[in-house]
Amino acid sequence: MIKYKNMEKNFDKWNELKKKINIRDPIYVSERDIWFCSVGLNVGSEQSGKHELFERPVLVIKEVTLNTFIGIPLTSNKKKGSWYVEIKSTNSSAIISQIKLFDTRRLARKIGAISIEEFEIIKNKLKNYI
């Protein structure tokens, strides 16, 4: 266990879970889906998952291959700034600065999907951010 600025991170526990996740079968995803995703225990300011499965909600932006997708982690905290986009239908914010490629084996369960209108807003803000 590593202690950093009064915060302990159990990387060993995450590593053991990651080994189990790696042998799962891939899952099919669609744009606009929101899934609980085992994003893991990450370094510094990177968004980490919570609880036993190191999960957080992730919005599927684009399927890349049958096994991978580009996703944006979500937070239930109302956030302001050019790297956040509010999703009113889910009372959450997309953290567009944390966009990344995910393997579908990290997915645990589907939460739902956002509307086409909200999805277009997020894509436009993401384009402007980049």
TrEMBL record:
What is this protein's record name? Type II toxin-antitoxin system PemK/MazF family toxin
Supply the InterPro entries for this chain.
PemK-like, Plasmid_toxin/cell-grow_inhib
- The species is Candidatus Nomurabacteria bacterium CG_4_9_14_0_2_um_filter_32_10
One of its GO biological process terms is: mRNA catabolic process
One Pfam family hit: PemK_toxin
Q: Which GO terms describe its molecular function?
A: DNA binding; RNA endonuclease activity
Superkingdom of origin: Bacteria
